[in-house]
């Protein structure tokens, strides 16, 4: 680790628009060797439904009907996590990967164009990885309208294209790939864009509190740890760290779309934080505000005596990143920025 | 493989209520060594929604609202699959694990009481494994009421306890673990029952055809293969094999709750089939009929010149299995029955 520059020189260099260190060229990708793997659900509660009539349901053609009483107790708001353990553990603590809104842990698995995602990337470098599906998404399940009265929001296929800085904003998506207007220089593998919306998960806008509760339960179960969190998980990462600052060794906020409790930033002063932003932000109507909020929160952490590095990737010479940085063609290059920073924090040996 | 008895002696022995061979005592569990891992979505279609007004949605507190036009094209009915590749490949083809109704691929991961599930078990024996979430479940996502008008069915926590031959039928579940009436000798890890309903996934009764279509797309992508399928996936396993008989080297039906097209059993005559049933079936109002349907289908396959072995586990000396055999305390013992049968079919070296 002595070959790496100090954090101070990294931050100083960033102020001049460079990373301040050469990202090591990886001649040979380290081997993927997983020797442990499992999954579990954590958190959640039992919700009671009452006053509904029983129903007879034929579950599969030919099978006799089963009488289902919809009244009773339901398991809701639990969260699914899958973990992988590498043969040679080099991370001092596990890395938790938390995805963004309308998505699931699939975000960090294989990229839409078939390259390995960040789960594999960090496993190859000896980190134990926990990849989870937030409450309501993927394998975490979701509650009935009796329990969650608000309707779920389903995103059309073109929505992430226009909103995640892949295309040139509103109206840039077309069902015809030849007519899509991509932001020039974009690193998203646009030729495989049609694979991406198949990962979309219906979402609610009313489940933030149960999601935070389940993430706290996850942290209580598996940390100390590093949390890498994306987009909507901005508030989840920061608020959960504010609830359990002693269990979070570092936070890596990848384009957080929201932040923690500004009244309690002092709690984060012992939790080093890295915040990353990609390209094309000035060309978008929403992203300058989102980034300003994130940077403002990082400034508050520093003002409270904490440590928060903000890396503007294009200013540091890493250009073309969409909002889905972990899927972009240069996803490994950005992962290396995170890895180098974590090494500098003494979290890898 | 020469140490193993012929299929004929196995089947003959089964007729006498025994397995006909000693299940080898595994002195040391083979190592788990995964050297490749990834995921993808397969199948599905684009569904169009039109005539709905646009909506402004604040996705996360503090973020500016985003205008969402609910009209447009949605990715629906795709299926998620995750794959793992062992260091030393001994299966001649991959194994596909297909879960039952109201569940997801989590079925085959860690058991509710924290033991390794069948994904790991078969990986340890050198099989490449594909574990999928059927259409509508888990990481496959689900469609809006605009696309699927029928409501989803949510199962209360006690439903599988009473319906899956864990408890003594209707009324046997209580929220108080001390008051639950378990079937005596049950192998389900009942002390960890409360973990199981957290895996439940809302389901529809109207998605069989899209599910079959997505499984066919999966088979087209990754087979030749062996398919191990459970419960509701009975019809999926048999019907998909009927659609792609040349791509399916063997079928393992674990308590199938439905079967294939009886008019087309001749298509299955080149696909060896193993069918397994657990314990307590005669004590349940529904299971004798379900099992009769399965055995009848196996008989039709044999009458058509095909090969179908039916193993009644308690008759073969393996007692106490609930419907969730892959989670039961003796799940490895049953996996070994499958493994031995696959070896006899020449599918493992």
Fold and architecture overview:
The structure is a homodimer of 349-residue chains. The first copy, chain A, has 349 residues and is an alpha/beta fold. The first copy, chain A, has one domain: 3-Layer(aba) Sandwich (Rossmann fold), CATH 3.40.50.1820. Helix content of chain A is 22%, strand content 19%. The longest helix of chain A has 17 residues. Chain A starts with 6 loop residues before the first helix and ends in a 5-residue tail after the last helix. The N terminus of chain A is likely disordered. At the A-B interface, strand 1, strand 4, strand 5, strand 6 and helix 6 of A face strand 1, strand 4, strand 5, strand 6 and helix 6 of B.
Characteristic terms for this protein:
homodimer, 349 residues, alpha/beta, Rossmann fold, eight-stranded mixed sheet, two-stranded antiparallel sheet, globular, disordered N terminus
Seen as an oligomer or otherwise, the chain set is: homodimer
The CATH superfamily of chain A is known as: Alpha/Beta hydrolase fold, catalytic domain
- Helices and strands of chain A: which structural class? alpha/beta
Distance between the termini of chain A: 8 Å
Query: What overall geometry of chain A do the principal axes of the alpha carbons give?
Result: globular
CATH domain fold name of chain A = Rossmann fold
Tell me roughly what share of residues is in helical segments of chain A. 10-25%
Strand order of the largest sheet of chain A: 1-6-8-7-9-10-11-12
Q: Find the biggest chain interface.
A: A-B, 84 and 84 residues
| CATH architecture classification of chain A | 3-Layer(aba) Sandwich
Q: In total, how many beta strands of chain A?
A: 12
Topology order of chain A in helix (H) and strand (E) letters: HEEEEEEEHEHHEHEEHEH
CATH class group of chain A: Alpha Beta
Cα gyration radius of chain A (Å): 21 Å
**Which whole number gives the mean pLDDT of chain A?**
92
Q: Biggest β-sheet of chain A: count, sense, barrel?
A: 8 strands, mixed
Count of folded domains of chain A: 1
Strand share of the residues of chain A? 15-25%
């Amino acid at each position: 680790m002595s070959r790496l520059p100090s954090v101070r020189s990294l931050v100083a260099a960033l102020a001049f628009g460079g990373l301040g260190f050469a990202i090591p060229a990886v001649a040979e990708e380290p081997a993927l060797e997983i020797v442990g793997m499992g999954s579990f659900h954590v958190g959640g509660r039992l919700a009671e439904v009452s006053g509904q009539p029983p129903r007879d349901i034929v579950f599969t053609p030919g099978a006799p009907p089963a009488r289902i009483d919809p009244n009773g107790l339901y398991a809701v708001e639990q969260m699914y996590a899958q973990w992988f353990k590498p043969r040679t553990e080099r991370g001092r603590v596990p890395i938790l990967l938390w995805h963004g809104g309308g998505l699931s842990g699939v975000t960090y698995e294989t990229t839409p164009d078939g390259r390995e995602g960040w789960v594999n990337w960090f496993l190859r470098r000896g980190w134990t990885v926990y990849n989870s599906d937030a409450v309501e998404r993927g394998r975490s399940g979701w509650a009935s309208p009796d329990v969650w009265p608000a309707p779920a929001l389903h995103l059309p296929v073109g929505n992430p294209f226009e909103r995640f800085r892949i295309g040139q904003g509103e109206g840039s998506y077309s069902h015809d790939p030849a007519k899509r207007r991509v932001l020039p220089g974009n690193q998203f593998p646009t030729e495989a864009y049609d694979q991406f919306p198949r990962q979309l998960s219906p979402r609610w806008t009313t489940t933030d509190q149960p999601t935070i509760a389940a993430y706290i339960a996850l942290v209580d179960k598996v940390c100390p740890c590093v949390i890498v969190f994306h987009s909507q998980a901005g508030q989840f990462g920061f608020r959960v760290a504010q609830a359990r600052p002693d269990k979070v060794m570092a936070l890596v906020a990848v384009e957080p779309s929201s932040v923690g409790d500004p009244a309690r930033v002092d709690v984060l002063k012992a939790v080093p934080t890295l915040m990353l932003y990609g390209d094309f932000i000035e060309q978008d109507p929403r992203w300058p505000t989102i980034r300003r909020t994130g940077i403002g929160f990082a400034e508050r952490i520093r003002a409270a005596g904490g440590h928060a590095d903000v890396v503007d990737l294009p200013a540091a010479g890493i250009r073309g990143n969409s909002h889905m940085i972990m899927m972009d063609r240069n996803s490994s290059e950005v992962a290396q920025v995170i890895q180098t920073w974590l090494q500098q924090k003494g979290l890898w040996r």
